[in-house]
Amino acid sequence: MKKLAAILLVSVFMLCAMPVWADEDIEITLMLGGMEDFMMEAYQKWWVDPFEAEYPNIKINLENVSDIEQVTKTQMAAGGGPDMMEIIGPSMAAEYSERLYDLAPYVEQYGWKDLMFDWALGSCEKNGTYYCVPTTSEGIVLWYNEEIFEELGLEVPTNAEEWENVCQTCIDNGYMALSYGTSGFTTGNDWFLSVLFANYCGNAYVKDILEGRAKFTDELAVNAVKYYNDIWQKGYITDRQSYAITMDDSLSLFLSGRSAMYCHTSYMISTIHESMEYRYNMTVYPKFNDALSTNSIPLATCGGYAVNSNCTKEEADACALFINWMYTHPENMAKSVEAGLSPLCTELDTKYFSEDCDPMILKFIELSNEYAQIPGGSGYCMWTFWPNATHDIQVDNIEKVFMGDMSVEEYCALAQETLDKDIAEGNVPVVPAT
Predict the structure, then answer these.
(1) Which residue ranges form the domains of the chain, and what is each CATH number?
(2) What pLDDT shows up at residue 13?
(3) pLDDT beneath 70: ranges in the chain
(4) Is 389 helix (H, G, I), strand (E, B) or coil?
C-alpha cells in the first residue's frame, strides 16, 4: 500500500501531450466547497490563470459554496448544477451518478491510471465507470503545541498508556487535552473515528470489515468504540464538549494555547501556519491497542472532480483537459501547496518547493514516506473508503453513544446492518491492501 501513504515523494509524471484544442470559445463553471479566501486566490493564481493563458478560448469560472454537498444535491436533483464540481468523496458520486459524466474515456485518453495514485483513482472506480476522479490528498494528523509539551515535560505518545498520560497531565495542569469540534458539522466525526479504527483495530482488519470478512459487531470493533467512549467520558476529547463546539471553536482553542493538541487533517497546514503564535508540530496518532504492531496515518482524497452530464461533449472535454493540465504541471502544484492548497493525488518531487516552504509541508512528506515503509502503516479515512450510507450512520450516531442515548453494541449493530446493505448493493469503494 505504498502509494496510499506516498502523498509527496520523489518523481513527477509528465505524461500525455496536450491535444490541439478547438477554436470555439467554451466557458466552464467549476464549483468548489468550503474554500477560504486565500485558497480561492491560490486556485485562481496557480491553476486557472495559467491554464487560461495556455488555452485562451477556455474560460474557467470558479464558484465557492460553504455547503457544497447540499448545494450540489439540490441543484443536480433539479436537473441543474455547475459544469464541473468538487464532491466530498468518491462514494457520494453514486448518489447522483445518472447526472454525471462517466470519465472512463478520459482515464484512458490521458493515462490517469499511471498518473494518479492507484489507491485514489481506484476509490473512484465502480464496475469500470469513473463518475469522478480524485482532487487532492490529505491525512489525519495529530497537531500539538510544543511549548505546552515542554512545559509539562511530555513526549509524543506512541501507545494508549502514554496517550492517556499526556491527556490527563494536560487536564491536571489546566489545559484542554485535545480540541475537536463537530457542532454544525457532524460529518467531522469521521476524523477521529478513522483514527480510532486504524489505530485500535488495525488497517488490515478494517479492510476485512469493509469487504465483509469481519464485522463491526466483532469483539475487536466493539472494543474500539468502547475505548473511544471511555476516553471521551474522561474529558480527553474537548472536555466532553466535542458535540457542542464548532470546528472554528476547536481551532481557536489550539491557536490560543488553551489546548495542547488538535484533531484535524493536513488540510490545516496553511491555516495553522498563518495564525499560530506558539511553536507547534504534527505527528501520527499513537496505537490505542497494544496488540497492534504499529500505529498508522489514515489517508484520503479530499474529494472528487465530477462533470455534469448536462455538459456538451466539448464542455466535458474542456473539463477533462483542465484536470489533466493540473496533474501534469508540478511547478504549479508545488506553488499551490505552498499557498495553502492540498497536493493533488500524484507524486511530486520536493525540488519544486521553495527554500522558505512551511516546514509542516515537508514534515507531512516525512511522515507519509516513513509510514509508507511500515506494513499496515497507511490507513483509511472514512470519507474516501467507507460506503456513504455506512459512513453517515456512524458519524450521525456516535454522539448518541457519548450522551448515553445509544449503547456501543447498538451503535455497532446499526453500523453493520447498514454495511451489509452497502456490500450487497456494491457500494463499497475499492479498498487497497495495507
Answers:
(1) 2-135+304-353 (3.40.190.10), 138-299+374-424 (3.40.190.10)
(2) 37
(3) 1-23, 89-95
(4) helix
